[in-house]
């Protein structure tokens, strides 16, 4: 599930259509509600290497931010100096380590650092949902050389696994959730998500402007 919406300034949630990722803004007068189109979402730029993800969320002069992580999800609530309140929830493609996540408040928004659960070929996309318009891959936040090296290591491990099982004359079925699935390794992209964990709040923060 991907959710990005603005909540009432009084703290009451305004119902939105989560499946279409709509955003609703409300003033102190609850009758004054209008919808913001998808291309006006706060932009989320992201990049990665084989072990970490970096997200830059564009909410200028962000304040009151709170970021929570589970092994499969990032949940953010924040506001800007205009008093607009944002809520963002992303179901990640692959598991992460919540306790090793951190975020930094900047004048331009939030910078989030995420630790992957395992060192692996780089993800084809950030989330389980293939089409999320406000997510943009940023090459400046990525390390393609590291990604390629990780893919080669995984492919080598797969070929060793395949030869070992072939010598035993015991065909082995590799489950779709197994990150060593040949197609996943070769394409470094189609590794199915797995595992769910407890929710934790990431308290590792640096000073604003860092």
How would you describe this protein?
The chain is of the alpha+beta class and 210 residues long. It has a single domain (3-206), classed as Immunoglobulin-like. It is 14% helix and 30% strand. It has helices at residues 144-167, 182-187, and strands spanning 3-5, 23-26, 33-36, 44-48, 52-58, 63-69, 73-79, 85-91, 102-106, 109-115, 135-137, 200-201, 205-206. Strand 2 and strand 3 (33-36) form a beta hairpin. The protein is elongated. Mean pLDDT is 71; it is low at 5-40 and 172-210.
Briefly characterize the structure.
The protein is of the alpha+beta class and 210 residues long. The protein is built from two helices and 13 strands.
Topology:
Layout lengths: L2 E3 L17 E4 L6 E4 L7 E5 L3 E7 L4 E7 L3 E7 L5 E7 L10 E5 L2 E7 L19 E3 L6 H24 L14 H6 L12 E2 L3 E2 L4
Parallel strand pairs: 4-11, 9-13
Antiparallel strand pairs: 1-8, 2-3, 4-5, 5-10, 6-7, 6-12, 7-8, 9-10
Main sheet?
Answer: 6 strands, mixed
Distance between the termini: 31 Å
Given the C-alpha coordinates, what overall shape results? elongated
Strand content: 25-35%
Strand order of the largest sheet: 11-4-5-10-9-13
Descriptive key words:
single chain; 210 residues; alpha+beta; Immunoglobulin-like; 5-stranded antiparallel sheet; 13 strands; CS domain-containing protein; CS_dom; Hsp90 protein binding; protein-folding chaperone binding; HSP20-like_chaperone
């Amino acid at each position: 599930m991907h959710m990005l919406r603005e909540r009432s300034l009084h703290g009451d949630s305004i119902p939105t259509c989560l499946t279409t990722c709509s955003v609703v803004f409300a003033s102190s007068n609850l009758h004054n509600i209008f919808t913001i189109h998808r291309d006006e979402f706060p932009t989320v730029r992201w990049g990665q290497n084989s072990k970490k993800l970096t997200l830059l969320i564009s909410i200028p002069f962000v304040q009151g931010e709170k970021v929570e992580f589970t092994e499969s999800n990032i949940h953010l609530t924040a506001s800007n100096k205009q008093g607009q309140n944002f809520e963002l929830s992303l179901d990640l493609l692959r598991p992460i380590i919540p306790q090793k996540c951190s975020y930094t408040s900047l004048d331009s928004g939030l910078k989030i650092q995420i630790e992957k659960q395992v060192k692996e070929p780089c993800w084809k996309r950030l989330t389980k949902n293939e089409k999320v318009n406000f997510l943009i891959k940023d090459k400046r936040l990525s390390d393609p050389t590291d990604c390629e090296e990780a893919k080669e290591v995984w492919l080598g491990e797969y070929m060793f696994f395949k030869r070992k099982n072939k010598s035993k004359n015991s065909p082995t079925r590799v489950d779709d959730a197994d990150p060593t699935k040949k197609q996943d390794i070769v394409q470094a992209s189609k590794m199915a998500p797995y595992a769910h964990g407890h929710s934790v709040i990431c308290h590792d923060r640096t000073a604003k402007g860092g």
